[in-house]
Amino acid sequence: MIKAGIIGATGYAGGELVRLLLRHPEVNLIWLGSRSYNGERYADVYRNMTTLSDSVCRDDNMKELAEEADVIFTATPQGFCAGTVSEDILNKAKIIDLSADFRLKDVAVYEKWYKLQHASPAFIKEAVYGLCELKRKEIPGARIVANPGCYTTCSILTLWPLVREGLIDPDTIIIDAKSGTSGAGRGEKLANLFCEVNENVKAYGVTTHRHTPEIEEQLSYAAGRSICLNFTPHLIPMNRGILVTAYADLSDAGIQGEEIVRAYRAHYDKEPFIRFLGEGVCPETKWVEGSNYTDIGFCLDKRTGRVIAMGALDNLVKGAAGQAVQNMNLLFGLPENTGLEMVPVFP
Amino acid sequence: MIKAGIIGATGYAGGELVRLLLRHPEVNLIWLGSRSYNGERYADVYRNMTTLSDSVCRDDNMKELAEEADVIFTATPQGFCAGTVSEDILNKAKIIDLSADFRLKDVAVYEKWYKLQHASPAFIKEAVYGLCELKRKEIPGARIVANPGCYTTCSILTLWPLVREGLIDPDTIIIDAKSGTSGAGRGEKLANLFCEVNENVKAYGVTTHRHTPEIEEQLSYAAGRSICLNFTPHLIPMNRGILVTAYADLSDAGIQGEEIVRAYRAHYDKEPFIRFLGEGVCPETKWVEGSNYTDIGFCLDKRTGRVIAMGALDNLVKGAAGQAVQNMNLLFGLPENTGLEMVPVFP
Amino acid sequence: MIKAGIIGATGYAGGELVRLLLRHPEVNLIWLGSRSYNGERYADVYRNMTTLSDSVCRDDNMKELAEEADVIFTATPQGFCAGTVSEDILNKAKIIDLSADFRLKDVAVYEKWYKLQHASPAFIKEAVYGLCELKRKEIPGARIVANPGCYTTCSILTLWPLVREGLIDPDTIIIDAKSGTSGAGRGEKLANLFCEVNENVKAYGVTTHRHTPEIEEQLSYAAGRSICLNFTPHLIPMNRGILVTAYADLSDAGIQGEEIVRAYRAHYDKEPFIRFLGEGVCPETKWVEGSNYTDIGFCLDKRTGRVIAMGALDNLVKGAAGQAVQNMNLLFGLPENTGLEMVPVFP
Amino acid sequence: MIKAGIIGATGYAGGELVRLLLRHPEVNLIWLGSRSYNGERYADVYRNMTTLSDSVCRDDNMKELAEEADVIFTATPQGFCAGTVSEDILNKAKIIDLSADFRLKDVAVYEKWYKLQHASPAFIKEAVYGLCELKRKEIPGARIVANPGCYTTCSILTLWPLVREGLIDPDTIIIDAKSGTSGAGRGEKLANLFCEVNENVKAYGVTTHRHTPEIEEQLSYAAGRSICLNFTPHLIPMNRGILVTAYADLSDAGIQGEEIVRAYRAHYDKEPFIRFLGEGVCPETKWVEGSNYTDIGFCLDKRTGRVIAMGALDNLVKGAAGQAVQNMNLLFGLPENTGLEMVPVFP
Hints:
- Four copies of one chain form a homotetramer.
- In chain A, about 30% of the residues lie in helices and about 20% in strands.
- By secondary structure, chain A is α/β, with parallel strands linked by helices.
- The first copy, chain A, folds into two domains: about 1-125, NAD(P)-binding Rossmann-like Domain (Rossmann fold); about 150-315, Dihydrodipicolinate Reductase, domain 2 (2-Layer Sandwich), CATH 3.30.360.
- In chain A, the strands form two sheets. In chain A, strands 8-9-7-10-13-12-11 form a seven-stranded mixed sheet. A six-stranded parallel sheet of chain A has the order 2-1-3-4-6-5, sandwiched between helices.
- In chain A, strand 12 (about 295-300) and strand 13 form a beta hairpin.
- In chain A, helix 1 (about 10-20) crosses helix 12 and helix 8 (about 150-165) packs parallel to helix 10.
- The interface of A and D includes residues 204, 230 and 301 of A.
């Protein structure tokens, strides 16, 4: 059994980790860390866990946790993991960091977009970007896995085959994303109140959202050159789900739908958690709710010479906790889908 | 492996049965019956099932199905099961009927409330009312299990110990229930349109809702005499969940909270799917969403001499498909929680 | 023109007052008080007011405001108005208090339910309870109008004719109420976050909600004797709207629906803001959204000898700001519906 | 008083017309036409109209209606108005058509996108496109006003100044739109059921939505040449509201935010129903709910050389009924904002 601990267990992503790890056949959940609720019963913080967890929240002492755990999930604000990690900790436990601290390889880019000084840039190089579909071979040997962002996972998976196969002009990429409100976290903020979100839709973080450089970096690897793109997130009055609608010019006006289908199939047909729906199918977030799937479809517009590629996932599962578990499975040599075969809940 | 078939697999309850049975370790799902979608791929009707089911919908021929299946779930409109069941079918397969056809022992009551003539009253007597917590011993030997209604399950479980232990005056019971909209089914009706339900709350079926006599019958068994009560359902702008708020006069003004706690604990402490939350705790539907749990709490009002007992469940799981699977487990001698250990999804 | 000021203009009720008073033909809105946003442009706090208000928020100095205003609306937390009001202020301006400070005639009851010491009990006696339909004659001469609570208005109006005409046994009254989330205010609380409220329903304040004694006091006047009842509020995932479902035993088993219809008609047929829908009609909150109406209907249950009376209103309009404006109209001799003829918005 | 009739009064746009015209000081609403509810009381179809309307629904006989009315609103499916209008009718009454029949000047484009044969192309030329802000001078003399679509109004108003002033490259325009569900109409369709829409977001009509050529035509006038663009609508789980997020390359990399601000101000500063919010402000649909406003803001992305322009309106008001009333005001020489000064409802 893998001994697992969570720092930040009482945020929404942390709560989802608990939900998944409680039913993971190879995991023993030994530490639910929470600065805000330290000393309280976890099932009193999340009453859905009544009878399922009798744990009491502990603090966020990663050093002590590393003594007890094989793997540590940090579902914490930006800066926490970078400020805490050490050679000593990494020699004792694997870290799967759900924050952005180790996602960007260029520390200057991190510091510019996050407006934080990075506390341990020395570990950036060894950290593996945990988008399992792209880094499946590198993850098993890592000490730190940088679990990707929710918008990022959806955006990259939706566009990767198109960029990789040279089917689109990477300088024309525009990503318009829509997210459920759990992505905004459990903080007590005016903008997250029910009455402010319900019956409302808005863009936010336009031109400045921190997931932008992460998407750009990964798609740059696919393109073999640096990419600059637009990413615009929107807040949707629903709990879970991200939909990405991505636009790009075809690299050649003669490209047909079949070529695009072939590209997606070549990359994704063997993926356990990507469901390519085909040309002309528009994914819906409800089709993946509660599951670890990413659904992808596209439309070709011959009038404008553009492709509209669409992807949907559950931001708390494939966009956070599910992907973290998938990374854990890879780290510990388990079948990648262990504990992750939840059927999407509908309605 | 149990060979299972579903008639009415494309309604919401049928869809939930598919979700649960696909992950049930002892079930082979061999027949997805749907009059409306006969011949279509099930995953085209419910796109959440993409890659999870490659079945094509079949018709609702229960006779033919009985040749192939060990158990048949009928998630069909009132009257279908009663109009189709036969000695021949019952000799070949068990039936778990999610409609109301075999829930009421008195055919006259059925015909009055449902305004239907019962097509096979001869089978009513042998049918076992499938509220597992109450009929655990009778279910294994049954040929027909009458799976309880969603409102009914929640109402009965919430009140049973209080009635059984004589703590409340059964003539004063008032049940005010609130349900998510999936309880209204997948029919294309004006009243179920998003814009009619969203930002709205209303009572419906006041004094006439068909679940009323079912609640009365079961609680009458608890009381040892006939009970007549008020049941008022309300439609809530959410997908899933039922909350029951039940009011009753204490049978004796001196009754204390501890006595009520004791009654609940005595009846439910060993129940795998009932979580008694204690005095002063108000259950929330979100704490049980996606799971087979019923959460129960209560408050005592010394000023008025009444108890307010509250119960919450997911109407598609414990209120329909989950309970049906629980019944199947009992019918086939499996541990009652097999395939039913879903952790509630939050948020 | 009436010069009006609002203390607490940036809460939801305060915001609704601004919406209504901006279009009131006889009002000049001179003061938008807000402790939290003092000095900020009101239209920056509520962007829906862009171009409609160029006011800057002022503080909550009621004394200074009384020098400038003819009427002061206090949409403030419990205790503020009682702690600030003075003979001097009342000699200069009328006060319409949207808090509970002057609603209850018995200061001991106030202090027990609100767990606050009342700072100016001397003014309680002269304050008029501003439920316009009941106190139409007393309001014009008042210096302080105690604007009723949202749950209270709906509960009292729904039950008043039945109690007054002796058609129900007042000792059996049970009120089960459902409210949109704006009733919980604009405070940054975990329980009010979108993800906590959406897809959820729960009871709260069971047996202890502070609107209980207010309902009891007013219905006691109708009954001519002291009444004790149950009031249970529920939080619904919608922005606006209150639905009250009230249960009571008929005072005589022989009472027919027509008698009840007659009672409602006798009391309400001339009321501009009450719409009696008749027997068998269940009001819906959406039918009154954005308007000052209260819709009322009922069902008679001959089986149990009970009546189920239902009322619906918009908690921010008739339940708060609209009723406050109605009171202002009465205070200043204007036609009662001035500025209040909003047609309900659907959908 | 203007005698007004509505054909299609029981759809959502028709219902909103009734809401607005009932409070319009210069209108007498004489005919509520509804094929589906002919002979039923309007207030029984829309219970929010109880006591506000005692009309009985009439049929859709436009010829007869033209004898009685000064103006006819056709809130009907595509093809109805074109199939019914005649010289005779137009000589008797003005027509404001909320369908698309007379919006496109090129009948071939209409027939291609709507897959309908146009029944009266002879009237297309004289019809005036009723986007009041652009056609204010032509509308007063028109016999037929083609009231614009909801997506269209929002898209055109958001982009017009940028195209007109040559600030963006019109070949790079991508419009990603999000709409509340009332835009899908009141039809009893599976896709519009609460449980299908709630907790879900999806794109639809990708590359084929019928509002595309309407946007292209109008923006082509602004550009002085033919434009081809992408328009992608999305369905959002809310009742009302459209948000447009539009992307385009700057026509010159050196263009600064102030130039864009100047362009918007020059075009819109005197508009009664457009509120330009400035650079860096993201409009929200809730800020305009229930009102006739369109709110517009933008962000400039120097990294990518693109502008992201955003617009929000209420699809049933400025996107349908409100704009139709605005057109009526222009047709009959009334101040343009008569009956349209609703303050946005929040929350």
